Sequence to fold (525 residues):
Amino acid sequence: MLMSGIIYANAQSTTKIFVVSDPHVMAPELLVEDGMAFQKVETSTEKLFRYSYDFFSAIKDTILQRKPDLVLMPGDLTKSGELVSHQVLISMLDEIREQGIKVLVIPGNHDLNIISDYYIGDMTMPAEKTTPAQFVDMYQNYGYGMAIDRDSASLSYVCEPIEGLRMICIDSEGYYDPRLAPDNGEEQIHSFEKALTWILKKADEAREEGKQVFAMMHHNILEHFDGQAEYMKNYFLENGKNISQQFLLHGIRLVFTGHTHIQDIAKNYNAERTDSIIDIATGSLISYPCPFREVTVTDNFSQIDVKSGKLTKTKTSDDVYALSYERLYKNTLNRCPLYAQKFWSSFRRSLNQFLPLLQALEIDIFKFPQTSAEFGELTTRYMGEPISKACMIWYSGNENKNPLSAAIEQEVKDSMLRMSIDMLGDETVGRMAYDYAMQSYYTDNFEPIINSVINDCTNYGTDYADVTDDENATFTLPKPTLSGIRNITRTTKSNDYYTIDGRKVDVNHLSKGIYIHDGKKIVIR
Fold:
């Protein structure tokens, strides 16, 4: 017998998905006594750890009110991977699950095997960390227990939470469960390339069974501004540009991500612009603008409608917007010197073009910064505010619709001119330096990034340029179709041909199309 069963995608008419990312839940008991130890942590980050429990409690109530079919959480579930923080989060997830709502999680870089502390006044005391094996056991009800298959090279798994929708939940941080890979010991490894083979195989299997395939991972797989892969390497999947094209070839066209704390949607195309992959990044729940997403999926998982929401108030904060905005702006300004140092070499190259003229005018070149640290401080003094404003606009999403965006580019240029004049102590010479050196420095370094950000456009100025609404977007994906037959048994080689819906056809009168012959797909052109 050639065929004992045909699998169809029997999807429900509408699926509602709620996305909450990077909640960084901190168990309240970790703050034993408020003091310098915890305050030092707070001043070094934009994350509102102090409020994380209340923020997630508020989003839990929102989820219970909205009643989605599925909740996706793309990593950084806890502050620093404390076992007690995972336990606190799971207690809130249990309330969601008890209402019949499914939740899928994956680990981020803040969830396993990192420094975890109790805060006691001016001191800290180690808290118990969470191991990969513990993570898998603790989240059995939130993905791992639903797994159709798991990858031995990572904590990735695949499941089908809604009939017809295959979710590949990818551990992009590269942890692994020693019970599946016992020879690797207990150390974390970065094994995404090993996991990739498994991921693509699972995507192929899902498509052969007529399933739609979505993925979820912590790291961005597409750039959300031009240059992200270079200047924010830790937030972008290594070799992401190539891997995203492999995803696309294997039918993974929609990926939910987090990590960067931005509310942004990016899209990229294949070389012919006949197909595209979409990266829906959701910002951190405890960092400005404290967002979440609601995704409605219809028409056999091919019609995707994405809407954004923002947490506005909780039991402990009446104005989440103001609280989170102030913290992120201050932190961005504080980080400017470090980020500016990445442009030090380029600045020196631009300046060298102007040195002969400076020497001819007997200008003291030592008025310019001599080290990357000096350059970082100087850049921040003059350009920190406009750059921080640009970052705030980027975190919010829909930069091209923000009325503040239009002024940012000129503010950056004006601040560079002031920096040039003040460094040289002479307006005429300063303007000359700006015209001959600083302009080229801006054009080579800041202009591509700023144009990409303020226009909310990736691949800016190319044939692959894309502007996608970050808050309210609609996408149409190819409908899943049955492309394979399962449970094939045969006793002898058959010369029969079948259509993909199982009808036997006359081998002497085959028209163009796809057929099943001897257990294989045959294309007649």
Notes: The longest helix spans residues 427-454. Residues 491-525 form one domain.
